[in-house]
Design brief:
There is one protein chain. The protein contains three helices and ten strands, in the order E-E-E-E-E-H-E-H-E-E-E-E-H. It has helices at 64-77, 103-117, 161-164, and strands at residues 3-6, 12-16, 19-26, 30-36, 41-47, 86-91, 121-127, 133-138, 143-148, 154-158. The two termini are 25 Å apart.
Length: 166
């Protein structure tokens, strides 16, 4: 049986092998699910705010730039090569349905822009809308799935791992 590790708002977690990294009840936040299938390494960064923190504090990983950098550093320390990291994005929804709320779009723009600057491939994304979301990264199988609202879990992306092992 696989261990399930919850990744809450502002957290960045790394997992190896038989583990599932999970973030649920995602509203305007963006969760970056990263996988290095060659080395069985995965990570989730649960981003709350665009940009970067004004100063270095434990809460800095609530910000997109700090969370992404922390995630990439953790994966590098675990042995990942940046060129082998694939990413999926989930979140950025206006679940409170406020017409004047721009945080969702700001988070999407900031996160996608930062990943592009760092030359990290975005393989799939479920962004925007008005339903809360959840994301599940099965590190061993290099698969990412998601939920929207009360719907059942659906596949989002599967790495090349299966094809490469044939």
């Amino acid at each position: 049986m696989k261990e399930i590790v919850d990744v809450n708002t502002g957290e960045v977690r790394l997992g190896r092998g038989k583990i599932i990294l999970r973030s649920i009840a995602i509203g305007s936040c963006i969760v970056v699910a990263a996988c290095d299938f060659k080395r069985n390494i995965g990570a989730l960064a649960h981003i709350m705010l665009p940009g970067s923190a004004a100063r270095r504090t434990p809460e800095r990983t609530r910000y997109a730039a700090d969370a992404i950098d922390e995630m990439l550093n953790m994966m590098a320390e675990a042995g990942s090569n940046k060129d082998d990291i694939d990413v999926c994005l989930v979140g950025g929804g206006n679940v409170l349905r406020k017409g004047s709320d721009t945080i969702c779009e700001d988070n999407i723009r900031s996160t996608t822009g930062l990943l592009e600057e760092r030359h990290i491939r975005i393989r799939a994304a479920v962004l925007g809308g008005i339903k809360r979301k959840g994301v599940f990264l099965d590190v061993e199988n290099a698969t990412i799935s998601y939920t929207e609202g009360d719907e059942k879990e659906k596949p989002l992306w599967k790495s090349r791992k299966e094809a490469a092992s044939r």
